[in-house]
Each structure stands twice: as structure tokens, then as C-alpha cells.
Amino acid sequence: MRLENKIAIITGAASGMGRASALLFAKEGAKIVVADVNDAGGKETVTMIKSSGSDAIFIHTDISKASECDNLIKTAKNKFGKIDILFNNAGIPHKPTPIEDFPEELWDHVYAVNVKGTFLMIKYAVPVMKAAGKGVIINLASVSGLRPRPGLVCYATSKAATILLTKGLALELAPNIRVNVINPVISDTPMFSQFLGGEVNVDNAKKAMSAAIPLGRLANPEDIAYAALFLASDESSMLTGSCINVDGGRDI
What we know:
The protein has seven helices and seven strands, in the order E-H-E-H-E-H-E-H-E-H-E-H-H-E.
């Protein structure tokens, strides 16, 4: 197994990419700390992992709050004795909105989760990893951070910040802690409809977006989970500061 005896924290693991990654990491031998604001979904992920014979715990965590990130890291360390992998998967979208109509409060909230939340999780996890002399951090950004779309400037710039945060910390935390980032194309997850505005038909939107991707389909949660598995495993031991675009060729 590729993650045997590893301890992995995955934020936003109540559904979508986070849940798919939690299930796959557990299948590959890791013990999982599921973190999310969605208690019901997070507990369901834990139940799914345990039913397959693996170990997992759920910790309610709003990653925009320093105290909850600190509690998550401390609880995970106390429970399992170490933290090998941190997958900062949690994030929030917003519907397309012209910049002149964009609410200041929403801008602050998107940045609080997508940027500050990633920073806080890393801030509290790094001392544990440094004490162990090793660790892997994976951040989730987006191809929007490379190629923004009109109306999604807030989301896109939050993901661009995540990409640069990854590169900066890859240098700062080398040689013992690796930091990489995954950039998915638009994905078929429960969040998909949140990127759409007004009366847009979801099925028609999926078809149109799929047609713009050379491989002819949206990403699915398992596509991102397998990329994360590779980055979490020793197979990627020479990768740090890397951006893995899981985009079906969209950004060539």
C-alpha cells in the first residue's frame, strides 16, 4: 500500500474531492482525519472509511478560524502521534458576479477560507512536521488561478494566491517538507452549480464546459484524489513546488 502507516488530514472531506481523497488514502493504508464544517457529511465519510476496515476520525473545523485549525492539529497529533500528510482541499466558490457588484463581505469570506484557511492549516501543522523531520503538504487551487474567467475574479485570485503560497513554502520548508498544488479544471462535484448564476441549466452547462476540454469531460472527484495520492506518496519524493493541472488539456 502506498500510504501504509501514514496519518493524513484532509480538509473539506465531507463530500466531493475531499471525500474521494479520504476514501482512496484510507484504501492505500493511511489513517484519516476528516475535517469539515459539514458535520453530517464528515461523519458519513468516517463511517465509509471504517466500514472498509480503515481508521478515521471527524473533527468539526472552520478553517477560517485560527483556534479551530489549532485544535484540529492538536487533536490529530494527540490521537495518532504524528501528521504525515496535510491535504488542504477545503474551499468555497461563488457565482459569476461583475466586480462592481461584488459584495465586500463575500470577497472577505472567499479569501478567509481559500487563502487564510490554507495558511492557518499550514501554520499549525508545520511545527509537528518539523519535529518529525518530514511531511507532505498538498494544496488545492484551480486552473482559474492560471486562466481567470470574467465574473470569477475573486475566486481566481484566491486560487492564484494559493499557487504562489505553495511555491513560496516549497522553498521555505525544503528539504524535509514537500509542498505541491493541484489545479483541477471545472469538476463534477456538489459545488458545480455554485459556479453558475441565474437560471443556467446545469446539464447544458456541463455539456458546454466538457466540449471546451480536449479530453471531452469534466474532472471527477477521483481524478483529483489520484493526483493527491501521487503527491502524498513517496513516488513523488522529488517533487516540491509543483503545480499538477488535472484539466484534461484545458490549459495547454
